[in-house]
Specification:
This protein has helices at about 5-20, 25-110, 110-180, 220-230, 260-275, 300-305, 315-324; strands at about 190-195, 200-205, 235-245, 285-290, 305-315. By secondary structure, the protein is α+β, with helices and mostly antiparallel strands.
């Protein structure tokens, strides 16, 4: 049993005995002494705790010092290994240097024939290096030329794309103007469409011709003149007028022998009206007959009997870009 516990056990018994057996003054003295002993015991316990804490700190510091010692030993081993490796490499380099010096000295002491052979080999090596350098320079020049040509092609492509975009925008505007000019006819046998960079104006024959005839009636003339006026200011526009028929054979004899004749004469009639009533340049207008061979709906003869006016942009500028 520890001294502290002994005191704590013994003091109460002593106190009881003193109270029972001694006078009050002696009791007070004993009580005072007991408190003194208790204070001394508490102080001793505090010192013991401080000593234990100090011991624990010293133990932790010792363990950390041990770990550092192990790491230092490991570092020393690595440094030793690196030093040995560096020494070995230095010895090799020194050996190679000595070997080179030896060969150089032998070369200086060599005969004239050996020196001439060496000079000949060196000259051959120099010429070979010059040839390789020339080849590399020539290849670099070709690469530069190809890069320049590629840059030119890239610029050409960008110019072509810009021109195509401008043409497409112009054809869209033209399509809108034609539709506006022909308001009242669309949906009654007339359609205006933009596709493949062109504007297609399709007019069923019932809007233009009596059955079997190639003479344009009054209402048809009005339609054709409005269209011609809407496009006459377009200077970079080519106009193709195509006549189409159904599969019914031409009858009655006369000037019309077949659907080829009928389709061509209908297209020509339309072109003549356009020329007579607008400022369209004749060089930009073409009349063509397609007969019965390009139907839009084999099951609907009325739709196949038609005049198609195809408005195409002038592509000369594009061709210049492509051919440059």
């Amino acid at each position: 049993m520890s001294f502290t516990r002994l005191l704590r056990t013994a003091f109460p018994l002593c106190l009881i005995t003193l109270v029972a057996c001694v006078p009050s003054r002696k009791y007070e003295e004993a009580n005072t002494r007991a408190k003194t002993l208790q204070a001394e015991a508490d102080a001793a316990n505090a010192k013991a705790r401080d000593a234990q804490a100090a011991f624990d700190g010293m133990k932790s510091a010792s363990e950390e010092a041990q770990r550092r010692l192990v790491r230092l030993q490991q570092d020393t081993t690595m440094l030793g290994t690196s030093l040995r490796s560096m020494t070995s490499q230095y010895d090799k380099i020194n050996g190679l240097n000595n070997e080179l010096l030896d060969k150089y000295n032998k070369l200086l002491a060599g005969t004239g024939s050996e020196n001439r052979k060496l000079l000949s080999d060196l000259e051959a090596l120099r010429l070979d290096l010059m040839n390789r350098e020339d080849s590399v320079n020539a290849m670099g020049k070709r690469i530069t030329e190809k890069q320049s040509a590629l840059a030119d092609r890239e610029a050409q492509l960008q110019a072509l794309q810009a021109e195509l975009a401008a043409k497409d925008a112009a054809m869209k505007g033209l399509k809108d103007r034609v539709s506006a000019a022909l308001t009242g006819f669309e949906g009654k046998g007339l359609t205006v469409e933009q596709r493949n960079g062109r504007v297609y104006v399709s007019m069923e024959n019932k809007l233009l011709f009596p059955s079997g005839s190639y003479a344009v009636d009054t209402k048809g003339r009005e339609l054709i003149i409005k269209l011609a006026k809407a496009i006459e200011s377009e200077k970079d526009l080519n106009v193709l007028v195509e006549g189409h028929t159904d599969t019914d054979k031409v009858t009655g004899g006369g000037a019309l022998k077949d659907n080829w004749d009928l389709s061509v004469l209908r297209a020509t009639s339309v072109v003549r009206i356009m020329q007579e009533n607008s400022q369209l340049a004749p060089v930009r207008v073409t009349a063509a007959g397609r007969g019965e061979y390009v139907p839009v709906d084999p099951a609907d003869k009325a739709k196949n009997r038609r005049i198609e006016i195809i408005l195409s942009p002038d592509l000369q500028e594009l061709m210049k870009i492509v051919n440059d």
